[in-house]
Amino acid sequence: MTIKIEMLRCFTMVATHGSLSEASDVLGRTPSAVSMMLKQFEDHVGSALFETARKSRLTPIGELILTEARREVAHFENTVAVIEGLARSELGFLRLAVTPSVASTVLPPVIFKFAEKYPKVQIDLRDMDSATIARELARERADIGIGSFPVVEGMSRTELFSDAFGLVCPKNHPLAENWDQLTWRSLGDQTIIANGLCKQITDPDFAPILARSRLMVPNMASLLGLVRQGVGITVLPQLTVANLQEEFAFLPLADVTARRTVHLMSRPKNLLMPAAREFLKLITDMKRDGSLLPDTQFQKT
Predict the structure, then answer these.
(1) Which of 20, 44, 154, 160 sits at a 20 to 30 Å CA gap from 101?
(2) CA 94 to CA 110: how far, in whole Å?
(3) Contact, 59 vs 75, CB < 8 A?
(4) What is the pLDDT of residues 229-286, one digit of tens each?
(5) CA–CA separation, 90 and 235 (whole Å)
(6) Residue 27, Cβ neighbours under 10 Å: how many?
(7) Binning pLDDT at 50, 70 and 90, where does residue 295 land?
């Protein structure tokens, strides 16, 4: 006969309480059922575990076995708790790969709500460009990606939002004084700092502007640092500076046609861990009720 976890649980409860009746109350079983389980355990061990029928005192081998039995029962119960926690998304690990602008403007309220609801889930949030995010998803090194993606076979892709490109400059920049009819051709000899998102702009009038740029800065923090310093101006989607309206002006262009579309991408839901499924549900609900995106109403300076 194989030793079962219920045998160990019955033995530890009887040894802890010193009687069959008290142990049976805790276990929710009849005293006769607990006694039978103990008898099976003793038969398997080949030795008595208690000195008397009243079960108030352990034999020497019973003392030794009790230590191991308690350790095994505690380990089993902890394992069960972890499994149940994973199923309820109370425990687990969530790996997010997102673009820097999404990480700084869109995700904070989502992460706040998710962490509040599932405080025991460990979250790994990394920011990177969209191409790298797609590779991380394909290699199963991320559960959910947020960026600008093409359709990828085997992946589920949902549009989260779309925002227009425009010029980003310091609020005291001369261009910010009168931008109502600003166009690509209005830029003249302005120093343009290119960035990784510029490749999404296919407007014909932007091509020569990008061609004469001598500064390419993929990192968002470094890019905005240079703009802040007055090294040049750049072209970004509106939400990238939604939380920085006190420092930067976002100048819409009268002739702009380019927009950035941001997607949520992951493996099919049935292949995701519960925590990832709950995160998808939360961000989808926030998109539906309008609480996902920050206020993007930039005012003329």
Answers:
(1) 154
(2) 13
(3) no
(4) 999 999 999 988 988 889 999 998 887 778 899 999 999 988 888 899 999 999 999 9
(5) 41
(6) 18
(7) low
Percent share of the chain, pLDDT over 90: 54
Amino acid identity for residue 215 in this structure: L
Q: Strand, coil or helix: what is 40?
A: helix
Nearest to 281 by CA among 26, 89, 62, 8: 89
Question: What domains are there in the chain, each with its CATH number?
Answer: 5-87 (1.10.10.10), 92-160+261-289 (3.40.190.10), 162-259 (3.40.190.10)
Interatomic CA distance for residues 276 and 267, integer angstroms: 10
Q: Specify the 3-state DSSP secondary structure of 105.
A: helix
Question: Quick count: other Cβ atoms within 10 Å of Cβ 199?
Answer: 9
Here the contacts of 181-188 (C-beta below 8 Å, separation 24 or greater) are: 181/254, 182/251, 182/252, 182/253, 182/254, 183/253, 183/254, 183/255, 184/209, 184/253, 184/255, 184/256
Distance CA 135, CA 63 (A): 56
Query: Helix (H, G, I), strand (E, B), or coil: what is residue 224?
Result: helix
Asked if 269 and 280 count as a contact pair (C-beta separation under 8 A), the reply is yes
Contact 152, 142 (CB under 8 A): no
56-104 pLDDT per residue, tens = 889 999 999 999 999 999 888 878 877 777 777 677 889 999 998 899 8
Question: CA quadruple 147, 151, 153, 157: dihedral positive or negative?
Answer: positive
- What's the pLDDT at 268? 92
Q: Is the pLDDT of residue 300 over 60?
A: no
